[in-house]
Amino acid sequence: MSKTNGAIAPSSGHSPFVRVALPPPASFHSFPSTSLFSSSSGSSPYVTDPNYGRRPGQQQQQQQSQREITAGEEGTAPAGAKLTEPRGQTLEEMYSAPENTLEIEVREPRTQEYGRNMYTDYEIMCRTNIPAFRVRYSSVRRRYSDFEAFRDILERESTRVNIPPLPGKVFSGRFSDEVIEARREGLERFLQIVAGHPLLQTGSKVLCPFLQDPSWSPKNY
Fold first, then answer.
1. Burial (0-12, 13-18, 19+ Cβ within 10 Å), 142
2. How distant, in Å, are the alpha carbons of 67, 77, 85, 137, 194 from that of 88?
3. What is the pTM assigned to this prediction?
4. DSSP label at residue 30
5. Which residues contact 128 (CB under 8 A, 6 or more apart)?
6. Is the pLDDT of residue 37 over 50?
7. What DSSP assignment string belongs to 75-142?
8. Full strand arrangement of the beta sheet holding 102-114
9. Are 163 and 190 in contact (CB under 8 A)?
10. Which of 23, 43, 49, 119 is least enclosed, having the fewest CB within 10 Å?
């Protein structure tokens, strides 16, 4: 039997085809593992939920650690600092009245005749929860001359407070709608300033009666 370039000659009675060496048989250890969990990380490449197979305590601990790392990376808290969830408002806090509210409104001007004279008075509505005031809601009527007397008393008893001026007097057309509305707005601004002053709230003896007492009279001061 003669060989030529790795082929067996036809005279030998064997196949004329080239003999090719086969690779060694594959080992079972060379195939990729079909296990759901990797031996190194303990997690499965086929399971998308990172918390699969973890006990509840491990899951909560991992979530807390992730929040701490994220806070440290974003600069919202020092690295390693534990964050607490913000506390939401209760129903009582959401619907309770805010602290130290004071609402003053001058409204409903009404022109009346007094003998041969005429005058316009105004309704003063006061709504508050400040303890310095006697009642939470009140409604009284005052005329412009009452406002003048009230301001004079405030200046005498409150020397440390600068009392704002009243809207000026009008001698012609004072009962027209435009003049009455302009005076109403000026009187409302005046009361909102003096009633909202903390020194007058606690130190004035005439403030609360003027705003809330229907029988108020300047002769008592």
1. buried
2. 19, 21, 9, 31, 37
3. 0.56
4. G
5. 101, 102, 103, 136
6. no
7. TSS-TTPPP-PPPPPPHHHHHSPPSS-EEEEEEEEEEEEETTEEEEEEEEEEEE--TTSS-SEEEEEE
8. 102-114, 117-128, 137-143
9. no
10. 23
